[in-house]
Design a protein that fits this description.
This protein is mostly beta strands. The chain is 0% helix and 44% strand. The protein contains no helices and 13 strands.
Length: 172
């Protein structure tokens, strides 16, 4: 039996002389995405119920599945949470909930998760969403390579890599 929302098709394979060479079954799982965000090595999308699905490399936990196992097709991520926006950086991901609260997960070598911690250790991973510090709610999030910014009442708040002043705080 196929999972709900999945479709199956059989494709017949033929040689150049039109003789039958076999067939392959293709299963397409239609999840009904409303938003998609592509990162450096991964992609995440929200379905119409604001549930998060991610796929691709997961070396820093950027898929939000609680582990570091790669996924070659969409898998449910950040289980137990719903988001109205998802953004993907190079190897981190952030989601914004309906109340504007931001959560981030994945690599944190530059503080791009926004939890006040920088973890520059080799192979560090944060595969579970963490709350962005400060207690702020955001109207919009936007990612960068190793940083994230949130917009709140016309003011931009940024966290993560500040090389060449990328955070706009006159430092770095």
């Amino acid at each position: 039996a196929l999972p709900p929302g999945a479709y199956s098709a059989r494709i017949n394979l033929r040689a150049r002389n039109n003789t039958r060479r076999g067939s392959v079954r293709v299963v397409l799982n239609v999840i009904g995405f409303q938003q998609v965000s592509a990162g450096g090595y991964h992609t995440c999308a929200l379905n119409t119920r604001n549930a998060l699905y991610c796929w691709g490399d997961n070396f820093s936990g950027q898929l939000g599945t609680g582990d570091q196992v790669d996924a070659r097709s969409p898998v449910r991520s950040a289980v137990g949470r719903t988001f109205v926006q998802v953004v993907s950086g190079y190897s981190h991901t952030c989601g914004r909930s309906a109340d504007g609260t931001a959560y981030c997960w994945g690599a944190n070598e530059s503080g791009q998760l926004g939890n006040g911690i920088i973890d520059a250790s080799e192979g560090s991973a944060n595969p579970i969403p963490v709350l962005v510090s400060g207690g702020l709610s955001f109207a919009r999030l936007t990612p960068g390579y190793a940083r994230t910014c949130g917009l709140r009442r016309g003011t931009a708040y940024c966290w993560g890599n500040n090389g060449a002043g990328r955070l706009g705080n006159n430092a770095g």
